[in-house]
Amino acid sequence: MKSCKNLLKPLKDDGILVRMINIHVFEIPVLFTLEGTETNARGLITLVGQSPGFSCRSDNYFMERFEKFRNKGKKMKALDMLDQLIRRDPYNNTLYDLKRQLLEGETD
After folding, report:
1. Can you list the positions of beta strands (E) in the chain?
2. How many domains does the chain have?
3. In the structure, what pLDDT confidence band is assigned to residue 1 with cuts at 50, 70 and 90?
4. With 70 as the cut, is the pLDDT of residue 40 above it?
5. How far apart (Å, rounded) are the C-alpha atoms in residues 60 and 88?
6. pTM to 2 decimals?
7. Residue 24 covered by a domain
8. Which of 21, 40, 49, 98 lies 20 to 30 Å (CA to CA) from residue 106?
9. Which helix H or strand E contains 61, and what residues bound it?
């Protein structure tokens, strides 16, 4: 990574003063979860909160519902379950592959 010293270095381009900005973008996965929730998601930083009185469903619940709806041919409901899992664990490429297969009609 370059130092920030020359981040806004002025350049001349056909008599116009141009400023070049080099910005390095990166992501830090942060996982927010309630205490006692079973999930396969991982974050570089994990914050666990106390339950406000209701329990969250586990990842297995949504995966079982996905399998059930996929086997019955209910594509939209299966996609809803996969979307829930993707929201919980957006860095899990397996879930994106399952969604792609479902959309392409390559279900087993």
Report:
1. 9-13, 16-20, 30-34, 45-49
2. 1
3. very low
4. yes
5. 12
6. 0.63
7. no
8. 40
9. helix 59-72
